[in-house]
Design goal:
- The complex is a heterodimer of chains A (399) and B (75).
- In chain A, helix 1 (12-32) packs antiparallel against helix 14.
- With 399 residues, chain A is mostly helical.
- The longest helix of chain A is centred in the middle third of the chain and has 27 residues, at 182-208.
- Chain A contains 17 helices and 2 strands.
- Chain A has a two-stranded antiparallel ribbon with strand order 1-2.
- Chain A starts with 11 loop residues before the first helix and ends in a 10-residue tail after the last helix.
- Chain A is 68% helix and 2% strand.
- Chain B is flat, with a radius of gyration of 22 Å.
- The chains are: A mainly alpha (399), B mainly alpha (75).
- The interface between A and B is large, with 57 and 33 residues.
Amino acid sequence: MQSATHTRPADQNTVLTASLAILGISLFVQQSIAGMQYLAFLIGVGLGITLLHAAFGFSSSWRLFIRERDGKNIRAQLMLLGITSLLFFPLLGQVFPSVQTHAALAPVGISVMAGAFLFGIGMQLGGGCGSGTLYTMGQGQVDMLITLIFFIAGATLGSAHLHWWLSLPGYGSISVIEYFGWWQALLLQLVILAVVYSLVRFLEFRRHGRINPVEWQLPRHEIAQRLIHGRWPLWWGVLGLAILNLATLIVAGHPWSITYAFGLWGAKFWAAVGGDPGSWAYWNSGYPALSLNSSVLEDTTSVMDFGIILGAMLAAALAGRFAPAMKLTQTRVLTAVAGGLLLGYGARLGFGCNIGALVGGITSGSLHGWLWLVSGFCGGIAGVHLRILLKIDKPIEVH
Amino acid sequence: MKRNQTRIIVGTAISAAAIAVAVDHTRQRLPEPEKQLAGQEAVIIINEGEALPGENNDDCVKSVSSGRRASPCSL
């Protein structure tokens, strides 16, 4: 359990700025955009607060496990997958027909395999995943601002090439909910997650002779303080993300996703400087064409991403951790550029990032989510070794 | 990099992004009702074997009429 209580004073100016921005944007979106878009924005704010206060990241936790077999955060991610599946499967299985929802289904094929692998490398070089890049950027980390800019560039480039990748062999979308029925598929999913959870525990125990517990309890007198100023026990993060992902599914009609918006922003920027992304196969039909020709505020993913950045900014300011001083070396700039490009390109090919494809795909019963997990983790292993080659990290020592 | 420098860079980036969003939002035109009606009355000729308008077999371009998304391309 984390014993450190909040010691840094809140950054009051930033708290005020972020709060006013959240209030202003939610009112503006409520007035000018039809539907429940403002709710999606507020859910994004909640996600940003949860991610930052619980320090819920994927890239550093995968690296910790690969290097040191510390599986605490990976087990928390598996719990997130299990709890979210419990919430999603009945809805996606039409147990409540009045709630219209769509699964995050995508084709299983070489595109996803290659994309997730590149994304896994990018996570280790760029220093963040889809969610991590957004919330650390909201926290005011300048290196992550560089990663985000090149993440957008990579996603835009990926959207230009996606149709070529989709011409490579693949199987189309496979939904285990449609194949087995929702409760049978849920049972199978929970069994597989339990097996992976046990494997992670076993590997951790074999290395350390003990298991690093996922903390969930706090002394009663610390609860209010930690709720506002952080840091949250990891379990709070798991529950918060699962509940907010459910809220996203109900409000937006699809699971939480992040990186579609990056490609959209890049394509809009390309159009603004005279390019013609509308002539690319990806952007000239269906939802992408619609969103390219509409206000960015009409795209749910974009609005939620803005919410995540502002939510993380608010949480960081409350914790007194906004805009930390840092040393920006040449190597860090180069890895942020390369990592960002790989993240963006990989996310587009993989039909999402660790959130849209891994969490959203798996918890929607889409087989591409599992393929993404395996390929992305293999990319993570490659990325960890690349960090050692580039002398960012020390070689792995096995005791 | 000192904390103040970091704040200035991040603040500038977020302000620039906010301006870009505002410009993008104001560039979008609302559809005119007359044009929408005219569009609904248009005759569409479909050759044998062709897909119906809005019906596309490509997984990547499926979209739903409600504006919510079922397309893998929107992930």
